[in-house]
Design a protein that fits this description.
Chain lengths: ~425, ~425, ~425, ~425
């Protein structure tokens, strides 16, 4: 008997997040044989860079009915409704990580639940392991959107705990195994339009440099061009809308930034991070376009956002990033913070110029019709000066008043 | 009659923060002539890269008594008691600025007050203008440490409001004027061991790139070596103590990091920031060694700091940085936050390896005897596994409970 | 020549916040004689409990043209757009003060500016002193809404620095002086529909109890009825809408709560607080209806608000309260926080029962169609239990993982 | 096979938190019969108001060896090292709850672990249920202090899921059953020197008032004396040290405050709260002495704590309270916050006067040798005034500058 709560009632139909790869194909078969239930596959294009048609063929081969196979291009929705709102917050987890994996999970969960509701499925399943954050992100999404759903997490339930056991299961059930999948991968990978990440095996010792062959989205900064690339990004209400004057849809824009980032070796990150499930892990992230976007957004905010707004955003950012990292996208507190952040972006419009060079992104210019830096704004009327330096004396005196009182107390006490 | 509160009572002795340059020499003379008071000069070596003996000669020339001339090398104290504590917090103002100017002011203020107390001076004076942050930082320090002090801020008081007026005053009072000081400087500069900054004039249009001649502490990344430099920094309790195995005093260490940073074009920042006094300004900062230190500290914390400690620090950092930027170093709230930060650094000990390359600092390894990443730690006893992936199911279920309740409410309402 | 920046350019028309009392009548005349400008009076009914018609008569008497006299009943707008939004946040300054004075200032400032825009006035004036918070609250409002306005703060400008001087000025200008205004008041008062406050003179020693005659809005708890009063308040989307089943407009509702509070001695507060301008002051506040409202709102939130939402609100409340106290109602950061708070209130609907007894408000019941406490919600389907206590083991294990790792490090180090 | 992780390895010796009551006696026997292990009992006097000797007799009767019975009076340690540090923070969970249950758990956990280390026990056990917060608080403490410990939580493991099953087990194992324990209790109770709490059964409907017979620590406010009681509490460095001039040890002081609170009907709270394990629950709390202490501490802080310190504390309080509520007393982040809080309390010394009356605590006076309110402090030197109201103009002007810039932008845009 399984230990999973999911096994406590019979499952009739399950919607599986299916990549078409070996692991999720094994899960597919395992669901059929273990639960005896109808399996619906959902395969999404989030910009991971793989063909989706083979997934359909493989699903058919594994006995999935054509009407139970769902394949969807989610790239625009992903960037428009998930990546961009998050970048409005300048979100970085633990000061450095741009949350590329975290932000994709809620969208996949949402789509699985939509299909489950449409087809009357009572369960959903994913291929995330029992030690990572992704299981949490998937499942919090599932439960938030369909509170009575049964969640099946095969990696936490089955006894296929070794590579050998997995391959035996695959062979036994005639699941095709690509030649290069026989051996164990030297690291595991996640990818979408925002980033690629790798962890495990060869990356496990945080004292050792990440080998170059682990990177897939960026060239080595040392091999990047010797002359910088200069680009202009246009922003509207906090979101990037154009590159070098060319208007682009969200996904097209990020795709183009990725190409620019790749060519200039931008967005590599070697990080030891704290997982929500309690341990530290070491990961390698490549976020070429996202890294450019991050600096671009900071730059346009620097002239269009008021200090009070900017500092409030900065103070709340770590909490916002933590919520996304931990899988709480569909929570009231994330939505409340989003309302606060979005409120601030009304005038975050303008263009920034960036220099891309051998791994670095350098802000070199910013302009906006709504600039708060604008000299005309500082001068309030003809001939008048808005700033009187004598005001500074009073400003300082009153700010100092409590410190003087404290100083006086110390003096009185002989401290 | 002057508008300054400082003029309301007669001043007998004033301690002036004196650089030996033209501007503070004019201030010196102006204090003598306007207030008719005895002037004490204080000149500090904070690593700004200038000889101090000429300041003594000039002070003597301007009629300061030898016993009223104070010159002090503060580099070690500056790095040990100000820069390092601040770097324990990973402090960045507005997400990017490492606070190089801000952190030097409290120390200068403290030394002026110490001299004032020793010599019975009733006033202090500084050369910061009436539109910037530095006047606030100096004066909040003065008032906190000597609440009854009279503060004289000549730039807010006098009528020498043009370059011409200043030079006329200088000539009238036989203050030597270096040839290159006759014209107006194309930008103003502040420098100490942590950084150099420039602002004003040629930098005023934030749409235009900072001209290369403005940089003084770093070479252009494009002219930096084609092969990376790899270094190891040793940390103890949150502070850097060695480079490549060589133990170094705080100031020596930062000096060496500055040389490494300079050579690799590291630490340039072109920023539009929000001043405490209310307007935006555009500045150029060079923090070569500090930038390396920032990434090194983040790296050593990543393996030695617990998640709860790390996230709390990240959440409080913006407030801490703002306090320092705004000049509240000597405030109870800064001291309280420092107590919290310092408490977290007990085991932030170990070494990190960094790759410096054409403007970039890349973390490539970290090790510590106190690592929380250590495999041995994760395994609690022989043969036992600390992490049971079945626990994750319960963990997720309870984290999801409130989201499911919310989802149930929505469903009930047909939302 | 005045020191005020306001005096630097001639003033043509000024909109004065005019109560009709002696002090603002003196200000009215002083503006006419000092600035030689046209004065427009604005008198608002914010529920302070005074007739407004006498203010009109007095303004006419002092030579104000009828078309320059503005009198407006703002009670509904005050409660609906200022008091209620603030109570959604459960705002308390320094843990105890319900911000009764602070919240009225922005509305008065807004109305003055609206009149100034309509009549082409270039200046505004108020009667707040130079040592308090109200001057800041008025003026930040003025400047935010009309950045080029000239602000006149007579108490900071004139030389009428004693009671005698004021009375002489009044007599000289034939301003009627009520008999009881000849002597100095034993304390100063502010009042509106939300509260009455007193400070100064007899209240200045914080060691001494506030004399009973200072209270005007509540009876002494000791003299309140010996039997409790039990009431029901209905809430919709975070705002109170009914009492004991009777639907009431915002101002009517608060008026009724005030009567209930007064009769039961509720809402007295004796506080030493920290002013924005830097010193501590001691005040006495009476907020009878507001105190009841505060507990009622907390009670209805307790069953309708999710934990994540509730805790986020609690964490941000001190900052929100501080912004209002300091006068930053019309700031982007207050508006951002308001967006966050309002987002949370969608389902804060239902009724609460409260017991009012001799100064105390006791929550004794709460119900809501949107309750998250509802048993039916906790059970997700027939016969099934949403909560499996075995999940708790996993939940605890993973929450403990990082603490165990820390414990292991300590043990290894022999600590 | 049990689902508990605790069952995966044999247990030799277990330290049980033993009250001597029926439930923990059943647990004791169940541990012996299920695990076949040696049981060590630990019974603490935390001021719950019960004799401890009967617990010893009962343990002996149930076969525990005399040397395995530990009974300890922890009242002083409890108040000094847990209650007082928490009150320095003015901690309230969800705005109202003084954390009476939460704060006792870490101390019990710590003592159990100390005994386990001394006697070489490999396991600990507690009697908290699987649906509450206490299991989390106990176990996080255990794991933090002894990471390799085996935790046994019988309520999550056994099949004694009904009252009948429990009684049968008791009878079968000859555990004496008091007559009044045969029926099911109408609510469950927790008590210690800080508070008593009740929940469950008759309290489950949050719409219904708590019946009077549920209260045990306070008399009904309506039955409290008709004349107020006035007391003086002395504080030193943030902790209460005397009542009406009489120096008292921490536990004696809290005991006396409890008596005063009881007699005046103070400290009753009827609350719907959010549990860490995910659901809402309704509880009734009585914290008579703690409620008085809370207001007393706020009052003494109001004159001795600087604004910056006070506001920082207020902003961090909700997080601190949440940590304690959730069971993270022994976490680095709680210790970091404690360091911050303790740093602020150096001068929180003086006396406050409070009026206790029919359920209410009213602050009526406060004095301190370190008062920051003191008039002498505000005046810095003879004849001089520290506060110049003209300074306020500059203070406001610079604080308004960014708001004016924003206003100008709006105007430019015609908004």
């Amino acid at each position: 008997m399984s230990l999973s709560p999911s096994s406590e009632k019979p499952v009739k139909k399950v919607v599986l997040a299916y990549s078409g790869g070996l692991d999720t194909s094994i899960i597919l078969k395992w669901l059929q044989t273990t639960y005896g239930c109808e399996v619906i596959t959902f395969t999404a294009d989030l910009g991971q860079g793989e063909e989706l048609e083979p997934a359909r063929q493989k699903a058919l081969l594994l006995g999935i009915k054509p009407e139970n196979i769902f394949i969807e291009d989610l790239r625009e929705e992903f960037v428009r409704d998930y990546v961009f709102p998050m970048f409005r917050a300048n979100a970085q987890y633990e000061g450095l990580y741009l949350l590329g994996t975290s932000i994709a999970r809620p969208l996949i969960a949402k789509k699985q639940i939509e299909i489950a509701e449409k087809l009357g499925a009572d369960a959903v399943a994913h291929g995330a392991t029992g030690k990572g954050n992704d299981q949490v992100r998937f499942e919090l999404g599932y439960y938030a959107l369909k509170p009575d759903v049964t969640v099946i997490a095969p990696w936490r339930e089955w006894d296929l705990t070794s590579r050998t056991a997995l391959l035996e299961f695959a062979e036994k059930h005639q699941i095709p195994i690509a030649k290069d999948k026989r051996g164990e991968a030297p690291f595991s990978v996640d990818a979408n339009l925002l980033h690629a990440s790798s962890e495990g095996k060869v990356l496990e010792d945080p004292a050792l440099e990440v080998p170059d062959y682990v990177y897939s989205r960026t060239i080595d900064p040392e091999k990047a061009p010797d002359t910088p690339t200069i680009i202009t990004i246009g922003f509207e209400k906090g979101d990037a809308v154009s590159i070098d004057g060319e208007a682009l849809s969200p996904a097209s824009l990020l795709t183009k930034l990725n190409a620019l980032g790749r060519a200039n070796g931008i967005g590599r990150l070697d990080l030891v991070e704290n997982r929500f499930v309690g341990m530290k892990s070491r990961g390698m992230y490549e976020t070429p376009g996202g890294t450019i976007l991050y600096f671009g957004h900071r730059a346009i905010e620097s002239i269009t956002l008021d200090r009070g707004a900017a500092h409030l955003k900065d103070e709340l950012m770590p909490k916002y990033a933590e919520l996304i990292y931990n899988g709480f996208w569909f929570s009231p507190e994330r939505e409340m913070l989003q309302a606060l952040i979005d409120k601030s972006q009304e005038f975050v419009t303008g263009t920034v110029r960036l220099k891309l060079y051998k791994g670095g992104v350098h802000i070199i210019g910013r302009e906006s019709p709504y600039s708060l830096y604008d000299q005309d704004l500082v001068t309030f009327e003809e001939g008048a000066v808005a700033y009187d330096h004598r005001d500074a004396a009073g400003f300082i005196k009153l700010n100092a008043l409590r410190l003087r009182t404290l100083g006086q107390r110390k003096k009185k006490l002989g401290l």
